[in-house]
Amino acid sequence: MFFIGGITQGSKEIPYQGLTFICDRCGRYGRYQVYMTYMCLSLFFIPVFKWNRRYYVKTTCCGTVYELNPDVGSRLARGEDVTIMPQDLNFMSDGHDMPAWQAPVKRCSRCGYETQENFDFCPKCGQRF
Q1: Where are the domains of the chain?
Q2: 64 and 30 Cβ atoms separated by less than 8 Å
Q3: 3-state secondary structure of 61
Q4: Which parts of 21-64 fold into alpha helices (H)?
Q5: What is the pTM of this model?
Q6: In the chain, N or C terminus with fewer CB closer than 10 Å?
Q7: In this structure, are residues 77 and 50 in contact, taking their beta carbons and an 8 Å threshold?
Q8: pLDDT truncated to tens, each residue of the chain (129 aa)?
């Protein structure tokens, strides 16, 4: 007899119906998206035990990520109506999904091709940006 099991890392989005706020990082309106990450022991592909739960908040405006207070996160995971306050957040990283209108425009000096992508070389003529 043998068992099929393993330890994996998982994540789950937690529904949060908070109010719209003005972001301290980008100055635009945004909402919070709450996520839980965890380690999981599975037997026969069925999750049996979860541990090391951590809660994160990502803003919809600029993608900034914060670590959420574990007490507030666990209350949200249980379905309680909780308001996330600034003191419940610990800054982790700036968002990498910069809106297209905010990204710098690169212009090729040889052919004039313009792009907002982060290329080192022009995709049209091969000239270094």
Answers
A1: 5-93, 98-129
A2: no
A3: coil
A4: none
A5: 0.67
A6: N
A7: no
A8: 677 888 888 889 999 988 899 988 888 899 999 999 999 998 888 888 899 999 999 999 888 999 999 999 999 999 999 999 999 999 988 865 554 444 567 888 888 888 777 778 888 888 887
